[in-house]
Every structure is written in C-alpha cells, then in structure tokens.
C-alpha cells in the first residue's frame, strides 16, 4: 500500500532551498537524463491562492520533462512519479506529488484529479515535510530509490531480451518491452497517426512509443496508462482509427490481393483491391487513385508509399502487399483481413 507523509502547510518564506530538497533534486537529475531542474526555493504564494507555497520554505521541487504527443504529461514524468510511489513516498517524507492534472497525497494515495490553476503537464511537483527537508541526504535517497552512482545513460540499457516471433496481442507490452510484437505496434501507430512524428520501427518500447500509445488510448477512450494490454491490442488489431472507418464491415482477401498485385490484374471479383484503393485514397488525402479493382502501376506506387510510411524500405517497400502492411491498412480503415 502506498503511504504518504502527513501534509504540513508552509507558513512563511525562509532563506533558501533545504538540504533534503537539494539531495532529492540531485538524485533525480543523475537518474533521469530527460529531467530539468525548474527550481526549489521561490518565495511566493500557491498559484491562484493566498497561502505560502512550500517552495517558500525550500521544500518543494519542480522537475521539468518534455511534453507528451498530446501536449500533456509524458512517460518521462510518469516514470519519476511511479518510482516515488513504488518506493514509498513516506520513506522520503514526501507529502504530495502533482503531475499531469493528478495529485497524490495521504488523502488520495491512488491519485485524484488536480483542479489547481497550473495543470503541471510540463513538470512534476513534489513536496517534502520540514523534517525530511532538514535531514535526508543523497545517500538516503539512493538507499530508498536505488542506485549509488548516476544511472547509465547509453541507449536504453534496461530493455528485456528481444522476443523474436512474438505475435501482436499475445502478451501485454509496456515500457522496456522488446520484440517483434512491439515492432508491429509501432507500425500500426505510424499508420494510424501519419501526421504525428514517425516512430522508429525497431521493436523497442521506449518513451516515444509509450507516449504515442497514451495518445491513442486517450483518443479511443481507453485507460490512459501507456500499457498495451488486452483492450488496447483489441482496438489496435481489430478496428480502424476512432476517426475514420470507410471500410467498416468489409473483408480483404490477402491471397487474392497479392495475386492481383503480382499480375497487375484484378482480385478475382471480390472487394480486396477496391478496398485497398479506397484506403490508400483516404491515407494520402486524395481521390486521384481510381477505384477500379485493378492493381495497376499507380496502385502499386501508392502502396509502396504506404509501406515506406510504415518504416519498410528496399524490397520490403516494392508495392507488393505483405501480411503486415495489408493488415495495418485494413485495420486502420475498418476492414478485416482474410489470410
């Protein structure tokens, strides 16, 4: 059970940051490469109020992090919050944490909506008691949160062993997961949100992919936690984006589609090639690709552009549909794939 220290309001401004607050900030900066020190001591009132801020007593920390894809909190900040919650806030005298429109405290250890003036999207704010501010040291913080030296900062050293052959939807994936299923996740997210920055399709679930998952979950009205479990996988693999479903209820036969592409011909009379042409017109914002059921040169060229948008290159982006690219296109626009 998460426990917080009892909350003590600030009474008056002191003369600077307390040693315990400085020790906590030092630990955060050495452990979280993306963190920025936005300040500890500031003789002022609480934003939107008249009472003295804990910053005025030098026992509140503001730690800045990059914003997420949706312009709100990011996985960088949530990782720090989770580290504090997992370790036990009371062990460090933490009396409150505010981030991403959420506040955690003894009153609400599981978090509740924060309604203050500042949404705290760009920084984690946390406060410690006067006793902790006066007494805790960097060694104390390290003993509670882990580590005795600055955390290693080269390319993501904590990823799990890459899971070759992992099928999308076969397991829950989260920050530090790695495998072929994560690569497919990244391709699908790139396909769903082509106007956002393109994710690197490398199979490693880093903070940018987590942020994109959180963005998708918010749009789809799912639990926004950055974790790809059953409900998120179901939405990603089984339906189109929430915004567009032009192929809802349609079926694309993968075998017929590939045969038509290889022969620059028709799909045998079913909807497969027409469905792909409709989807490609939606994807690239036009109507210039004729929906005629013939997988001709222009359809192949447009399909190649789709494959490149997913992160494929070379022979893998030759305009001949494969299972991954066809499934991603069908999923995005609401169709089902018949293998």
The tally of strands reads: 8
How many domains? Answer: 3
Q: Main sheet, how many strands, which sense, barrel?
A: 6 strands, antiparallel
Query: Radius of gyration, rounded?
Result: 25 Å
Task: Tell me about this structure.
- The structure is a single chain.
- This protein is 35% helix and 9% strand.
- With 339 residues, it is an alpha+beta fold.
- The chain has three domains: 19-145, no CATH class; 154-238, Muramoyl-pentapeptide Carboxypeptidase, domain 1 (Orthogonal Bundle), CATH 1.10.101; 251-338, Muramoyl-pentapeptide Carboxypeptidase, domain 1.
- The strands form two sheets. A six-stranded antiparallel β-sheet has the order 1-2-6-3-4-5. A two-stranded parallel ribbon has the order 7-8.
- The longest helix has 13 residues, at 19-31.
- The radius of gyration is 25 Å and the shape is elongated.
- The chain starts with 18 loop residues before the first helix and ends with a strand.
């Amino acid at each position: 059970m998460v426990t917080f220290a009892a909350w003590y309001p600030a009474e008056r401004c002191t003369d600077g940051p307390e040693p315990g607050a400085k020790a906590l900030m030092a630990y955060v900066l050495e452990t979280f490469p993306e963190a920025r020190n936005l300040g500890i001591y500031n003789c002022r009132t609480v934003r939107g109020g008249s009472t003295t801020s804990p910053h005025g007593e030098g026992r509140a920390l503001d730690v800045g992090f990059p914003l997420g894809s949706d312009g709100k909190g990011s996985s960088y900040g949530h990782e720090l919050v989770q580290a504090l919650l997992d370790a036990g806030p009371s062990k460090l005298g933490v009396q409150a944490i505010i981030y991403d429109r959420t506040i955690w405290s003894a009153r609400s250890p599981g978090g509740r909506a924060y309604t203050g003036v500042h949404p705290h999207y760009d920084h984690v704010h946390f406060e410690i008691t006067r006793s902790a501010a006066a007494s805790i040291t960097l060694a104390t913080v390290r003993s509670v949160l882990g580590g005795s030296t600055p955390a290693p900062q080269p390319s993501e050293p904590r990823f799990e062993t890459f899971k070759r052959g992992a099928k999308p939807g076969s397991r829950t994936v989260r920050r530090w997961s790695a495998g072929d299923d994560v690569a497919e996740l990244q391709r699908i997210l790139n396909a769903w949100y082509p106007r956002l920055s393109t994710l690197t399709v490398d199979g490693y679930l880093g903070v940018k992919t987590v942020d994109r998952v959180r963005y998708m979950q918010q749009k789809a009205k799912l639990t926004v936690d950055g974790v790809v479990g059953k409900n998120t996988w179901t939405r990603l693999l089984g339906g189109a984006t929430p915004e567009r479903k032009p192929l809802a209820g349609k079926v694309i036969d993968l075998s017929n589609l590939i045969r038509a592409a290889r022969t620059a011909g028709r799909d045998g009379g079913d909807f497969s090639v027409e469905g792909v042409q409709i989807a490609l017109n939606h994807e690239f914002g036009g109507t210039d690709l004729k929906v005629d059921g013939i997988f001709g040169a222009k359809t192949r060229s447009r399909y190649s552009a789709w494959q490149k948008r997913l992160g494929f290159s070379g022979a893998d982006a030759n305009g001949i549909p494969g299972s991954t690219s066809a499934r991603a296109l069908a999923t995005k626009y609401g169709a089902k794939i018949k293998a």
